[in-house]
Amino acid sequence: MTDVSYRPPSRSRGARIALRWGLYLMLGVFAFWYLLPLFVMLTTSLKNLEEIRSGSLLALPREITLEPWKTAWSGACTGIRCDGLQPFFWNSVMLAVPAVAISTLIGAMNGYVIAQWRFRGANLIFSLMLFGCFIPFQVVLLPMARTLGIIGIAGTIPGLIFVHVIYGIGFTTLFFRNYYVTIPAELTKAAKIDGAGFFRIFWSVFLPLSLPIIVVTVIWQFTQIWNDFLFGVSFSQAGTQPVTVALNNIVNSTTGVKEYNVDMAAAIIAALPTLLVYVVAGKYFIRGLTAGSVKG
Amino acid sequence: MSPILEIQGLFKNYGATEILKDINVSINKGEFLVLVGPSGCGKSTLLNCIAGLEPISGGSIRIGGQDMTEVSPKDRNIAMVFQSYALYPTMSVARNITFGMQVRGVDKATQAAKLAEVARQLQIQPLLNRRPGQLSGGQRQRVAMGRALVRDPALFLFDEPLSNLDAKLRVEMRTEIKRLHQDLGASMVYVTHDQIEAMTLATKIVVMKGGVIQQIGTPHEIYTRPANTFVADFMGSPAMNLIPARAVPAQEGSMIEIGCESGESIRLHDPRVTGLSGDILLGLRPEDIVEAGQRHGPLVQNGSVMIEVVEPAGADTFVVARLGGKEVTSRLSADTRAMPGKTLDVGFDLSRASYFSPHDGARMG
Questions:
Q1: What is the pTM of this model?
Q2: Which residue of A40, A84, B169, B299 sits 20 to 30 Å from the alpha carbon of B321, by its own alpha carbon?
Q3: What's the CA gap between B197 and B178, in Å, rounded?
């Protein structure tokens, strides 16, 4: 006979509380470990140089100064130019916004075609695009430089947009294809019978369905493009460099004293947009990554 | 009057695989054609070919007297209801129904009038502002039908529209579709794998297997005179009994002898069919094997069988015996005295018998 009254041995109240606190302690340690560098950056950026030199790295600023932020934004020197990050920050905005928009739109269109308008060789094309996601960027630097030169957009922001769009399409197509493949083919059939054509079905039926995956793609692409250094340093020239390259130049051009507070402020400014995008759209990010099929 | 749908010599291949072979079907205005068969028989593919969603490899399709073989789906004057309903998830019910008209550029006032009419017909007025995700299965089904109705097409196509619903709702919607067909006098083609749905809805049934049409006929013809053992077995529940037997030509008609493991064999005489000889399959519906004395007529002939299993099912009781080495089911009244392990005298109603060849399953008489 099985004993139906069997219950798992329950832990005593004290043991449970101890376990709980142990868990929180662990989480606290890890959170502290991760947040410590940010804390150091933030506090250092608010101290003056004197205090940095004399005080401890981990100490809170004795008196808060915003002067390093001002310098980082509009006064720090990158090489011989001393306009701060500001012009390069706008370069990055003018680069990232169109590049993200274009690559997302093309990815959506590609995904729609590959998932819903099956054609001969669709799988092969998709596999090749997937393969493109995993090409190390260093490999393509020289051929791309030649290509940009031939087209005549070398060293310009449109040139950088072009590069980022090309190398973003692999991932954006993957995202949208995997999302659209879960949508029943009958939806396209119904729309065809309703008289809608290729583009009409895309605009009226598929794009409105795509908000979660658009958010995922935008966050992914924006983070990639904003944080990119390699393409930025390879395919730009003075005046068209993105913020990541400028940050590097600020940190590396020293005139006598190393201004740690300015460097820290500049680094935070350069990282702020990606942080902002994630905070604003983050909840859709998780939802989009885990989004299942859309039931009609 | 020319038929509303006429399919001639239709072939469909995927690469080297033949999906549909030489399909010839036509229906007149107001007919309800049901394509039925086991999964993978090509019935849904045929429907998609009619809709123009799948190109065909040979033959022709005419709808409303016009050749539609190369015409795109939107110009075929058809409407279609899908198994998954295929409602546009981001649009309201009202927009789902009017989307087609919007695409075709119908003016707003006409759209509103048609929407109101269809909503009244299907009693979905309270749902018009909701999204498909907020509807139950039955309501979605209604909206999907509304989207088809509003088109007022020459031909309605249904692709297993009820198979996602639970059993009770399925029966309700079946009745509703039948009523709709009667009220509108519309022409419909309906795909299902459910033979009961086929029997209840159709004015004409096409039974398919392996991409080949097995039989076309009214539900009555299909039920009483199946063209082969596949149709006999597929249509009807429980299936038609196919009893192995031997036939000998008699002075008038044929003698049929069924072997019994226990006791002597059963000898029947069917004066209607001549020319049967050798091994045959005797096809009898469960309801045509009755308790002796329950049905009268010169062709109701008695024999005694050993009962193996008795299955009461409320209104009827199914009794399983073994004849000619096969299980034979008969549908008896609920108050039968049949007992497992006992013999029972039954009457075989040969006026409703079918005879098939045991080799290729074709009907012999």
A1: 0.82
A2: B299
A3: 10
